Amino acid sequence: MLKKVLYLLVFSVLLIVLFLFGFTDSYRYSLEAKVKYTLGNYKEAMSLAKRAYELDPYNKMSFSILTQSKISMKFLDYIEDSKKYLKKVDAISKKVNLDDKDTIKIKMICEVMIGRFKKLAPTVLTPKELVEKSKKYYEEFKQIDESLDR
């Protein structure tokens, strides 16, 4: 008799969990967002988490994924901008005669990118590869900036 009650209780709990996560749109979107975030698709994860949060502001998973996606997107934007600006710096530095205007332009690019990196704030959940790649670009800009000071 006790076994039957225990099985019924476990079955009931599983049904409730299935109902909450399987049938409410907010939790379904949250789970989809979690999968997208794990796969590195931060933009779509942010969109799904935002939709889930709008449906249910008490959905902690959606809020967490939304926040993490925004943080990861900032790191991703920094990495993409770093690539673009390093190409610009490289193009400027390939000139035969580098004048003061070119040096100032390179210095300004470096200072802006160094400042942007310092504003990035990773969390424990921020993917390590994003943080490491961002730091690598930061070090490059720092090295270029220091070489111009000499």
Q: What is the CA–CA distance across the termini?
A: 84 Å
Mean pLDDT: 89
Count of domain modules:
1
The succession of helices and strands, N to C, reads HHHHHH
Report the principal-axis shape: rod-shaped
Q: Helical segment tally?
A: 6
**What Rg do the Cα atoms give?**
24 Å
Q: Quaternary status of these chains?
A: single chain
Number of DSSP strand runs = 0
Largest sheet: none
Percent helix, as a range, is over 70%
Alpha-beta content class: mainly alpha
Strand proportion, as a percent range, falls in under 5%
Q: Uncertain runs with pLDDT below 50, 5 residues or more?
A: none
What does this structure look like?
The protein is an all-alpha fold and 150 residues long. It has one domain. 84% of the residues lie in helices and 0% in strands. The chain contains six helices and no strands. Helix 2 (25-38) packs antiparallel against helix 3, helix 3 runs antiparallel to helix 4 (60-93) and helix 4 (60-93) runs antiparallel to helix 5 (100-119). The longest helix has 34 residues, at 60-93. It is rod-shaped, with a radius of gyration of 24 Å. The N and C termini lie far apart (84 Å). The mean pLDDT is 89.
